[in-house]
Structure formats: C-alpha cells, structure tokens
Amino acid sequence: MKSIEYPSKDTFVMTLDCRGGFHYFTDITLTFTGVEELFVPDHFEGAWWLYNEVYSTKTGFELHVLFERPFSEMKISAENVFIAERKK
Length: 88
Known about the structure:
This is DUF4085 family protein. By secondary structure, the protein is mainly β. The protein contains no helices and 8 strands.
C-alpha cells in the first residue's frame, strides 16, 4: 500500500506498489466510486495486501482486504471500482 486519498465523500483512491507482483510490475491505482461504507485502519501505508474477499451487494460490491503489519482489515462497500496503471 503506497497511499490513500479521499477526493470526495463517495470516492476513495488507493495506490498499490505492484512492482513485486505477478502481473502489472508497476504502481496501480484503484478508484472506488459510489462508496457507501468505508473502514480503513490507521497507519497501514506500506503494509502488504495478503488476502481479499469480494461479495456482491444490491448496489455493487463489498471488498474485505486483510493486510499485514500488524494484521488489519479494510472494508469498502461501493458501486464501482476502476483499476489503472499509474503513469510516472
């Protein structure tokens, strides 16, 4: 996890460092729109994304992510998510 942003009350943006990953090998930005519920643990920048679960809801989806350092969980309920390679 590199950074998080809250550009508006119903938008949440996460930037992930995927350079050591299996696909993108660069930074990826996840932009969640139509955010209905958001729980983000304190001080988890730099943590590793270990595991996730995604559930369908009436208005979109609910994402649960387990991070290490220390183990903490993030929860997002949103309508959409957009994934983009972060241009440097």
